[in-house]
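U., I forgot to send this yesterday:
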Amino acid sequence: MGGLAFALAAKDTVSNFFGGIVIVTEKPFTIGDWVKTPSVEGTIEDITFRSTKVRTFAQALVTVPNATLSNEPIINWSKMGKRQIAFHLGVNVTTPKEKLENVIKDIEKMLIDHPEVHPETILVKFDEFSHSGFNLYLYFFTKATDFGGYLSIKEDVNFKIMEILEQEDVQIAIPSQAFILQKESNMEAMNDFESMRD
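Result:
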């Protein structure tokens, strides 16, 4: 029984050692990189031939055997050259065609001129009709790849889109369900008011 346990331990040690060789030679990540695998996500703190230590965003330190890491898909966010942003922007169904075209043109120009938006791929298109309005599709990339920088650029773009909509006097579409709920709420308030008067 003891011999079997020893053999299994030796097998794990050899697997981790060769996994460490793969990690050291192929360099899928280095210390300080932000990585994500099926096992863990966080920042690489230490790499040895046996294991790799990862600091999660909850500040836990996770030690992952190299045999595990070397056999898993590894996403290295730190190695990204750019980071994607893609979303739909709904505008009110009463928006005239001319104003819709102006909004699309102005948002596209804003993204092209933005110093932190990657110039390679910028798409702003009237994508589809919806129950509550017209959906524009925005697809572009930020130059910053770190999470904080990415969010800052996304926030700045959102504020600039708000300014464009205000300049063109175009309203963001309100989902029909929300409109119905708001209408029902207003009716209830009116009924309460009438009851108080009675």
